[in-house]
Design brief:
mainly alpha, single chain, 4 helices, 75 residues
């Protein structure tokens, strides 16, 4: 988690808006791949890689925001 603390929030936000939403038209890849995952058609390795690549910025941003909010800290 120390590595996550070192990544600036602004950088994660920019990564999420660029790579996480690319391409914008006709729909972001991450949305398309999540639909494929939900329907059970996410089977090709390139599609799994696409979900990983476009989904990672979203997961990192969420983890950073949760960590900053103090969620999960022992009191």
């Amino acid at each position: 988690m120390k590595l996550l603390d070192k990544i600036p929030l602004l950088m994660l936000a920019v990564l999420t808006l660029t790579l996480g939403l690319a391409p914008l038209a006709p729909e972001p890849h991450v949305v398309e791949k999540l639909r494929m995952l939900a329907s059970g058609t996410l089977v090709r390795p390139v599609d799994v890689f696409d979900l990983f690549m476009h989904g990672t910025p979203w997961l990192l941003l969420a983890a950073k925001l949760l960590r900053m909010a103090g969620v999960g800290k022992a009191r």
